[in-house]
Amino acid sequence: MQCIAIVFAATLLCTGLRAKSANPQAVPAQGPAQVPAQGPAEKPAEKPAAKGPESWRLSKALGLPDWLKLSGMQRTRFESLDGQFRSASALDDSDHQWQVRTTLKADVNYHGWLATGELWDARQFEADDGSALDTGTVNAAEMVQLYAGYEGKSVFAQGDKASLIFGRHTMDLGNRRLVARNDFRNTTNTFLGFNARWESSSKDSLQAFFTLPTRRLPSDFDALLDNDVELDDENRHVKFWGLYATFAEAVGKANAELYYFGLDEQDAQGLATANRSLSTVGGRLVQRPAKASFDYELEATYQFGESRTGTTSNTDLDHEAHHVHLEGGYTFEHDWTPRTALQFDYASGDDSPTDGENNRFDTLFGARRFEFGPTGILGFIARSNVMTPGLRLVVNPRKDIELMLSHRPVFLASDTDAHTPSGVRDQTGGSGDHVGDFSELRLRWNVSPGNWMLEFGAAYAANGEFLNDAPNASGNGDTLYGYVQSLFTF
After folding, report:
1. Cα–Cα distance for residue pair 14/454, rounded to 1 Å
2. Residues contacting residue 411 through CB under 8 Å, at least 6 positions apart
3. Which residue, 333, 410, 320, is CA-closest to 371?
4. Residue 157: what pLDDT?
5. What is the predicted pLDDT for the residue at 40?
6. Which pLDDT score is estimated for 1?
7. Which secondary-structure segment (H or E) carries 445?
8. For residues 252 and 273, is the Cβ–Cβ distance under 8 A?
9. Partner residues linked to 230 by β-bridges
10. pLDDT digits over 358-405, tens only?
11. Which of 6, 174, 277, 311 could bond to 272 as cystine, CB 3.0-4.6 Å?
């Protein structure tokens, strides 16, 4: 009832705001929690929402000075799933949840001196003992960002810019496949440490960071059911660092990116880890979409080091894995600006459980909704032991409406490894490699541009031979999922 009241109140408020708008057709860039799902066209979730005509903003309403900004959002989403595909026998065949996230953010920029504090309150309602529930859903009353720093002109060349921050912060890098500030997921990845960035006048950039990833709390199931408040912490035995370089218009109008990430984690303080000691190197080439033209995106990643198969294992394995994303699209010169795209993703799986190696690609702190469909209580595809071509179509029948259709056949990269989202595995490979066929429909409606957006989505996963025949498959048949979401930005 609390969630329904929140949606109802937001509806009344934003309907009033829309009535005042001089141009309700205008569509802003998506707010801090909304990321366009268009592959190479994707923008980082940290980009602020563009203000539509008459958009209401908290800072303006309070008459704050230019150096201080207050902003936030309230999102309520109802999700329903029928035909549970996960292998855990304790899960019900069907599930539904209300997922509610409310944020408040304060930004200070005083003559180049920076300070930011951001509070997230992420909760669930109506989950039960048979629900899929973890720290990706619940993180109540948590300060996800609290940092200070400085940004100004670089000493290296005229027109260059540089910044340095220290504290707890979120990150979006590249297309967010390996490091992301989460959007669709109810909670987000955060990191404690320093983050430095340099940008030239020609938009080339270099970013360097060294951090301790934050551990979301509480982690036990009963506490998550009760939305208990427990402050997150960082473990000094888990370290994450990296370099990310961008070269503007390196190949024609296409941007090139090169990156290196290091991750080192060890069991400590009674906390079990997968003891990952990984180096991840890769590159990306992206040509952004434009009307009446082709676009493309190529990304390749190689990963090596040592890891274990999970937190319950005590065996260190040599780790060698890789990932490839290929995409080509075309945007038509039409009032609906349709864009169609062909996609292909491959992330390696473990070839053998007894060869002393782990070949399963680790997506680190990446996001997957923009590419592989809704996560939440679904999350049918992950960037690990997967091979999946895809077809996607995005149209805008009106300036305030976006419709997306996609379809992906899903295969295992290694038929002896697990389908990681479900935990289903046949170590003999006798159940084949066809996981299933995944289709998605999504509609976004900017009811009050800059303030209120409604989103509706549905997905259908038709089981392939693997999910039908594998020894620990759920046996629940095909999966049907749907959601409705209200997002109010202020």
Report:
1. 11
2. 386, 387, 388, 433, 434, 435, 464
3. 410
4. 74
5. 55
6. 37
7. strand 434-448
8. no
9. none
10. 999 999 999 999 999 999 999 999 999 999 999 999 999 999 999 999
11. 311
User: What are the beta bridge partners of residue 152?
Assistant: 162
d(CA 490, CA 73): 6
C-alpha count within 13 angstroms, C-beta hemisphere, residue 341: 30
**What global pTM score does this model have?**
0.88
CA 153 to chain centre: 32
DSSP 59: H
CA–CA separation, 243 and 259 (whole Å): 6
- Give the separation between CA 287 and CA 294, rounded to whole angstroms: 8
Task: Give, in order, the Cα–Cα distances in Å from 265 to each of 55, 173, 233, 383.
Answer: 45, 21, 15, 21
CA distance to 347, 376, 419, 460, 480, per residue, from 463 (Å): 20, 20, 12, 10, 11
Q: Are 435 and 410 in contact (CB under 8 A)?
A: yes
- Which tokens in the block code for residue 369? 């909704």
As given in the structure block, the two tokens for residue 229 are 């408040």
Between 80-89, 165-174, 269-278, 320-329, the lowest mean confidence (pLDDT) is in: 269-278
Q: Within 10 A of 249 (CB to CB), how many other CB atoms are there?
A: 13
Helix (H, G, I), strand (E, B) or coil at 99: strand
Residue carrying structure tokens 């309403």: 61
Q: What is the pLDDT of residue 46?
A: 37
- 26 CB-near residues (< 8 Å, 6+ apart): 52, 53, 399, 400, 449
**Residues near 478 by beta carbon (within 8 Å), at least 6 away in sequence:** 83, 436, 460, 461, 462, 463
Residue 436 has pLDDT above 70, yes or no: yes
Question: Cα–Cα distance between 335 and 232 in angstroms, integer?
Answer: 48
Task: Give the chain's domains with CATH numbers.
Answer: 2-489 (2.40.160.100)
The two three-digit tokens of residue 418, written as one number = 């697990």
Rg of the chain, C-alpha, whole Å: 22
Record the tokens describing residue 422, joined without a space. Answer: 């479900």
User: What is the pLDDT averaged over residues 180-188?
Assistant: 98
Which residue type occupies 215? R
The residue with tokens 């976006």 is 402
